[in-house]
Write a structure and sequence with these properties.
Elements (H helix, E strand, L loop, with lengths): L4 E6 L5 H10 L4 E5 L12 E6 L6 H11 L4 E4 L7 H15 L4 E5 L10 H11 L6 E4 L6 H10 L4 E6 L6 H7 L7 H7 L3 E4 L8 H17 L5
Parallel strand pairs: 1-2, 1-3, 3-4, 5-6, 5-7, 7-8
Helix pairs in contact: 3-4
Length: 229
């Protein structure tokens, strides 16, 4: 009997770059992508290896793991991007390859999940350690909030920043909440504080090294379940 297995990428926004990389890497698997598991017909498969295309193990990850348990096949869920300290450092260094030497305000979505609410503070500390001495992390929801991040920049006498989304993919938050024209967007708040802003709208999935980190997480779950490549 032939083992029919699928790798499923679950996340928001445009996953096409990541899906293309997966198709080139995992030649013996069907690679599918969706926002939620229920969008995919899995009737022809025996096993599903699910890669959450998420930053953290937050509420969306919890829901995904719950949904995976209800699938009518064997389902295994890999780790999201930032699952341990090493992943934080890798991500910080990848960002450093592009932005180190600039004053950067990284903007994430934020979370109130008990297991993840310190993650953005941890990212801030690690970015400092790899050389982002006059950069800050702020989030749209929760802490560290955008206003406090801007106050910290000003306390460092920063009057010019590169505004960067710390998000997996581009979407409404990037377009409207970070770079939008409305007064409450991060871009507008920075300008109202007299800070000169350079815009960089590159999402995390646009970095090949970040996509490789997701691939490595999938390889890890495959190896655990004896699907050696």
């Amino acid at each position: 009997m032939i083992d029919k297995s699928a790798i499923i990428l679950v996340g928001f926004g445009d996953l096409s770059l990541l899906e293309n990389d997966y198709q080139k890497t995992f030649l013996s698997f069907s690679v599918l992508s969706a926002k939620i598991l229920s969008e995919i017909n899995l009737s022809e498969f025996d096993n599903a290896y699910i890669q959450p295309v998420y930053l953290l193990s937050g509420y969306e990850y919890d829901r995904l793991c719950h949904d995976a348990q209800g699938l009518p096949l064997k389902a295994f869920v890999a780790n999201p991007l930032l699952s341990d300290e090493e992943a934080f450092y890798k991500t910080a260094r990848i960002l450093g390859d592009k932005y180190l030497g600039e004053n950067v305000l990284f903007i994430g979505h934020g979370t109130s999940h008990p297991a993840c609410k310190e993650a953005y503070f941890q990212m801030q500390q690690i970015l400092q350690k790899v050389g982002f001495t006059k950069s800050e992390v702020g989030v749209l929801e929760g802490e560290p909030n955008v206003y406090d991040a801007i106050k910290r920049l000003k306390s460092k006498e920063v009057n010019r920043v590169t505004l960067v989304p710390f998000m997996i993919s581009k979407g409404k938050h990037t377009k409207c909440d970070i770079f939008g024209d409305k007064p409450e967007s991060v871009l507008s708040i920075l300008k109202s504080e007299g800070i000169v802003v350079e815009e960089s709208r590159k999402s995390l999935l646009e970095y090949p090294q970040i996509r490789q980190m997701f691939i490595n997480n999938t390889k890890a779950i495959l190896n655990i379940h004896k699907r050696f490549l």
